Amino acid sequence: MVSILSNGNLAPGEYFTGKVLLNLAVTPEDNLVSVVSKVTFEPKARTNWHMHPYGQILIVTEGAGYYQEKDKPAQLIKTGDVVKIPADADHWHGAAHNSGMTHIALVPPGKNSTIWGAPVTDSVYNAVNVPESKPSPALNITEKATGNRETLWPGYQSAVNITDPELAELFDNFAFDEVISHDTMDPQTRIMLILAATIASQSVTAYTMMLNAALNTGVSPVAIKEIVYQAVPYTGMAKVTDFIHATNEVFTQRGIPQATERQSTTTRETRQEAGLVKQMEIFSSSIDTAYKNSPKDLLHIQQYLTANCFGDYLTRNGLDVKTREMITLSFLVTLGGTEPQIKGHIQGNANVGNDRQTLINLLTQLLPYIGYPRILNAITCLNEILPPIKTKEIMNTAKNSEAVPKDVL
Question: Cupin type-2 domain: from which residue to which, for each copy (predicted)?
Answer without folding.
Answer: 39-99
